[in-house]
């Protein structure tokens, strides 16, 4: 199967209609398609996601709904195979293929957080292992990271529009840390719950974030730290950051490998220490219902 696009039968299955209906939609110009050399129609996953959202069709789901997740997992699509496909698409720098894999899996019923905690994180970790073994170059690792970020943002554009929650979150990675993927994952997760999110990305000084507080007053701050080179300095900056936050309502959630490896909770006191993006949904729900 071509992992860049969907066949008429796949679209029909996703939208729960007949092949003939899909062909009619395509002929009427309701969904854009391309033709293979053999004259068969092919559809881009982003296009189908857009159409489904517009029309309220098919497997459209509430993101994070565990019951939907289980249905997705029970379906016979080789999980390992497509995880592997995603990993290869990242290494090849194929933005279109990587995006299609994620969007297709979402359409098939996997939850957003399953994709983030599973396929995206695992593929990047696998790339890290190969890099450590000298089997993946620094250039390939850079390309894979950029491709993953692009795929995440294409996936984001394909998500159903959620009910706005009137909540604001800020995401960033601590100063000196260039690993930004988790901030994008947290952003997409919170947005899928109807939050507004400002993602400041990698290498963000804490003092500059505290200045943002006076302007925007967020409800949640998501901090990611993969690699902390200067723990003493970062923890000192964090103490002043917390002091500035005292008069604000924002909760602080911290995650990342730097916190998984060592217990840094004394030096970085926070409201939540999170490991997964499905935890982010739980926190968002808790804040919303208060
Ligand atoms: C991509 C990558 C990079 C890219 C980052 C590009 C970018 N734009 O983000 C670049 C090339 C910049 C890079 C640089 C370096 N890297 Co690097 N990198 C990685 C790699 C392969 C993937 C990281 C990633 O994106 N993962 C995907 C995200 C989604 O997952 P995650 O970050 O692991 O986060 C997970 C959790 O931690 C948690 N999480 C994280 N943050 C948050 C926040 C919240 C709120 C929540 C809920 C959860 C959460 O959620 C995720 C699910 O479990 C990892 C491999 C690995 N095992 O992680 C190495 C890795 C992290 N890098 C490593 C190293 C050594 C480096 C360098 C020092 C290499 C060098 N000599 O220059 C530099 C350091 C640069 C710096 N100052 O930060 C080591 C770190 C080892 C260690 N702990 O000491 C790793 C583990 C590779 C390895 N196997 O050795 N790297």
Reading the helices and strands in chain order gives HHEEHHHHHHEHEHEHEHEH
Order of strands across the main sheet: 4-3-5-6-7
Q: How much is the radius of gyration in Å?
A: 20 Å
Annotated CATH homologous superfamily of the largest domain: Cobalamin-binding domain
The total count of strands amounts to 7
Oligomer: single chain
Total separate domains: 3
State mean pLDDT (0 to 100 scale). 86
Overall morphology = globular
Provide keyphrases for this structure.
Rossmann fold, binds cobalamin, alpha/beta, five-stranded parallel β-sheet, two-stranded antiparallel sheet, Multidrug-efflux Transporter Regulator, Chain: A, Domain 2, 3 domains, 9% strand, 290 residues
Structure description:
With 290 residues, the chain is an alpha/beta fold. The protein has three domains: 1-57, Multidrug-efflux Transporter Regulator, Chain: A, Domain 2, CATH 1.10.1660; 61-161, Methionine synthase domain (Methyltransferase, Methionine Synthase (B12-binding Domains), Chain A, domain 1, Orthogonal Bundle), CATH 1.10.1240.10; 168-289, Rossmann fold (3-Layer(aba) Sandwich). The chain is 56% helix and 9% strand. The chain is built from 13 helices and seven strands. The protein has helices at residues 8-15, 19-27, 45-55, 66-74, 79-91, 95-107, 112-132, 138-158, 181-192, 206-216, 231-245, 257-261, 277-289, and strands at 34-35, 41-42, 168-173, 196-199, 220-224, 251-255, 272-274. A five-stranded parallel β-sheet has the order 4-3-5-6-7. α5 (79-91) packs across α7 (112-132) and α6 crosses α8. The model is unreliable at 58-79 (pLDDT under 50). Cobalamin (B12) binds next to α7, α8, α9, β5 and β6.
